[in-house]
Amino acid sequence: MKAALEWQIACGADEAILDAPVDRTSPPKAEVPPRQAPAREAAPDIDPVAAARTAATTALDLTTLRAAMKAYEHCDLKRGAKQLVFSDGNANARVMIVGEAPGRDEDIEGRPFVGRAGQLLDLMFSHIGLFRTESDSERALYIANVLPWRPPQNRDPKPEEMKMMLPFLERHVELVDPDLIVAMGNHACLALLGQRGITRLRGNWKMALGKPTLPMFHPAYLLRTPEAKRETWADLLSLKDKLRR
Fold first, then answer.
1. Which among 132, 140, 127 has a CA at the least distance from the CA of 112?
2. C-alpha to C-alpha distance for 39 and 41, rounded to whole angstroms
3. Please, what's the b/e burial string for 69-106 (b: 16 or more CB within 10 A of its CB; e: otherwise)?
């Protein structure tokens, strides 16, 4: 009798009553995994250029364009910069200068061309009677950049960064509607003209975004290469003559 009870305990029959009979001698049934919810479809990839174009197109003035650029989340430069650098000068100016990107000083102050290169730029254009602080549109300058955020360690802008921000620049030019554009340096020429090689391009008038455009050496290049100031003076005189005509 004792041996029979021990055998039943070994088989798992250690309770007198259960809610339902259990066959302890059969192999256990495989557990059925819980039913999983169907996988969700992955979110479609966002085209940053298309998103920029949509945001730029809906901007009706410079205030809403600045807000659209500030809200744009697809350019990683935004995460490392202190602030957006939108523009400086008189938006009614006949001449719009387009640089490449903010540097350290510009990132701190929130305006383009405020460091040593900016001081040289102001001096250069003052010699032909143009100033960013001028209220008279005939003697005023308006300044913006291809990129509104500072690249880390002032590195060169990447092609994909310029491509995604180009719709904002195009809309910027459209809203300001200057008579002439100055493309300041290689990266501005690449964005506006699709060309680079500033030594070859400078001084030769081109058309960009429907506007006569003059490629010029960037002031930062002139600080490193002062002998190039001679060609820059010729370019400034060409710009002055173009404004007269």
1. 132
2. 6
3. beebeebebbeebebbbbbbbbbebbbbbbbbbbbebb
Q: How far, in Å, CA of 190 to CA of 162, rounded? A: 9
DSSP 91-157: TT-SEEEEES---HHHHHHSSSS-SHHHHHHHHHHHTTT-BTT-SSGGGBEEEEES-SSPPGGGPPP
Using DSSP, state whether 227 is helix, strand or coil. helix
Strand partners, 214: 182
Question: Cα-flanking dihedrals φ and ψ of residue 175, to 5°?
Answer: -75, -40
Whole-angstrom distance, CA of residue 216 vs CA of residue 231: 9
Q: Using one digit for the tens of pLDDT, what is the confidence trace for 137-177?
A: 999 999 999 999 999 999 999 999 999 999 999 999 999 99
Model confidence, pTM: 0.81
Q: Let me know: does 144 contact 171? Beta carbons within 8 Å.
A: no
Whole-angstrom distance, CA of residue 23 vs CA of residue 164 = 69
